[in-house]
Design brief:
Layout (H helix, E strand, L loop, with lengths): L1 H13 L3 H9 L1 H28 L5 H28 L7 H32 L4 H24 L6
Length: about 160
């Protein structure tokens, strides 16, 4: 991951975007979270669209939105855990017990934001009849922010040396 980052940062340096590269270097963890959080959001939205617009067309609108959203959330949570562990926070777990604790903590926090996601989608799409795709995008922006706070402060908290 670091080699790929450095490759792109060197390109930014060479094309006179050194300040942008320096911002990235100084906030590497946050920038990685934004990149992988963006990818997890993209996974979430694409799975939602595929389910809602291609797979569950014969269901009522409420059921179509809710089932599509649950599937999208589950897949994006798994994607997010793997990428956050390996590339963003780069945590090392010493034992299966530590890995299980970390994963359980991650899932627990994500359940909180999934409930928030489901509630906001229910309110805005199923009750207020706002556009489902637009609301999925806006709700995901809020979810990313809350998930970063949970990840940084609770799940992948660095142990004191």
């Amino acid at each position: 991951m670091e080699k790929l980052e450095n490759f792109f940062l060197n390109i930014l340096d060479k094309i006179k975007l050194k300040k942008l590269a320096d911002i990235y270097r100084n906030h590497r963890e946050g920038m990685r979270y934004l990149i992988f959080g963006g990818l997890a959001t993209l996974v979430n939205i694409l799975v939602f669209i595929i389910c809602a617009r291609l797979i569950f067309l014969n269901l009522t609108d409420d059921l179509r939105v809710n089932i599509s959203n649950v599937i999208a959330i589950i897949i994006s949570i798994l994607f997010a855990y793997i990428t956050n562990k390996l590339f963003v926070f780069e945590t090392k777990t010493e034992s299966k017990k530590d890995l299980l604790r970390e994963f359980t903590s991650f899932i627990s926090c994500r359940i909180v934001t999934a409930i928030m996601d489901l509630g906001l989608m229910q309110l805005t799409v199923n009750i207020l009849n706002w556009n489902d795709i637009l609301m999925k995008i806006l709700v995901n922006i809020l979810v990313i922010l809350v998930n970063f706070i949970f990840s940084k402060l609770i799940i992948f908290k660095k142990k004191e040396a």
